[in-house]
């Protein structure tokens, strides 16, 4: 039935309704995420994300304002969901190519969350996520509408300076121990700055130097 509805909307050119349909199906999957996903659910998430990307590519110069807004807002919800699915499946090497298509703030928040969640993972897993970001995002950007790796790293570093009350017991009053735990968290965060970017990306030597300098001055 879902395939028939997709076909009918594609043939009639009712792309706005197609997006609404896709998100209504996918959001119901997300609401039931505590239940093991079926193969069909995973395929629908993947299909939805690729439909959004294809529509953005094919119609980039031919969209009416209302549909363009829907393709951005609803499209970002669908792509975001697919990135989180890939991340949950341990496919960190794939998240960058899709996350880079998201609006700036959504992309930055997503990568910050993923980096924090992988902070206690193996170095191999962390490096996969690092590569996925540094290969598909510009290191820095003069375009305020686009996410960049430098801003993601700065956000991660900034959050590492925050004392998170939920990490401590309610009767915790040892200030020295709090500072010790915060210093440990900062030290773990610095691992992201010590990875070497691949030589295939533009200005990789400059980027490597900037990351190492940032690691040395992080407080």
UniProtKB/TrEMBL annotation:
<keyword id="KW-0539">Nucleus</keyword>
<protein>
    <recommendedName>
        <fullName>Nuclear pore complex protein</fullName>
    </recommendedName>
</protein>
<dbReference type="GO" id="GO:0006606">
    <property type="term" value="P:protein import into nucleus"/>
</dbReference>
<dbReference type="GO" id="GO:0006406">
    <property type="term" value="P:mRNA export from nucleus"/>
</dbReference>
<keyword id="KW-0813">Transport</keyword>
<dbReference type="GO" id="GO:0031965">
    <property type="term" value="C:nuclear membrane"/>
</dbReference>
<comment type="function">
    <text>Functions as a component of the nuclear pore complex (NPC).</text>
</comment>
<keyword id="KW-0811">Translocation</keyword>
<keyword id="KW-0653">Protein transport</keyword>
<keyword id="KW-0472">Membrane</keyword>
<dbReference type="GO" id="GO:0000973">
    <property type="term" value="P:post-transcriptional tethering of RNA polymerase II gene DNA at nuclear periphery"/>
</dbReference>
<keyword id="KW-0906">Nuclear pore complex</keyword>
<dbReference type="GO" id="GO:0017056">
    <property type="term" value="F:structural constituent of nuclear pore"/>
</dbReference>
<comment type="subunit">
    <text>Part of the nuclear pore complex (NPC).</text>
</comment>
<dbReference type="GO" id="GO:0031080">
    <property type="term" value="C:nuclear pore outer ring"/>
</dbReference>
<keyword id="KW-0509">mRNA transport</keyword>
<comment type="similarity">
    <text>Belongs to the nucleoporin Nup84/Nup107 family.</text>
</comment>
<dbReference type="Pfam" id="PF04121">
    <property type="entry name" value="Nup84_Nup100"/>
</dbReference>
<dbReference type="InterPro" id="IPR007252">
    <property type="entry name" value="Nup84/Nup107"/>
</dbReference>
């Amino acid at each position: 039935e879902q395939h028939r509805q997709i076909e009918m909307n594609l043939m009639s050119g009712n792309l706005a309704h197609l997006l609404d349909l896709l998100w209504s199906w996918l959001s119901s999957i997300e609401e039931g995420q505590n239940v093991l996903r079926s193969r069909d659910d995973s395929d629908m998430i993947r299909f939805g994300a690729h439909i959004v990307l294809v529509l953005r590519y094919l119609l980039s110069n031919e969209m009416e304002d209302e549909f363009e807004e829907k393709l951005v807002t609803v499209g970002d919800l669908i792509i975001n969901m697919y990135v989180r699915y890939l991340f949950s499946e341990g496919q960190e090497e794939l998240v960058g190519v899709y996350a880079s298509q998201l609006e700036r703030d959504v992309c930055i928040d997503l990568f910050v969350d993923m980096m924090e969640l992988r902070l206690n993972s193996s170095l191999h897993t962390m490096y996969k996520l690092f590569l996925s970001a540094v290969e598909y995002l510009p290191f820095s950007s003069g375009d305020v509408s686009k996410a960049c790796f430098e801003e993601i790293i700065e956000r991660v570093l900034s959050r590492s300076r925050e004392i998170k009350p939920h990490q401590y017991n309610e009767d915790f009053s040892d200030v020295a121990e709090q500072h010790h735990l915060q210093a440990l968290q900062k030290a773990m965060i610095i691992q992201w700055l010590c990875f070497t970017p691949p030589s295939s990306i533009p200005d990789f030597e400059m980027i490597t130097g900037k990351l190492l300098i940032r690691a040395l001055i992080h407080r």
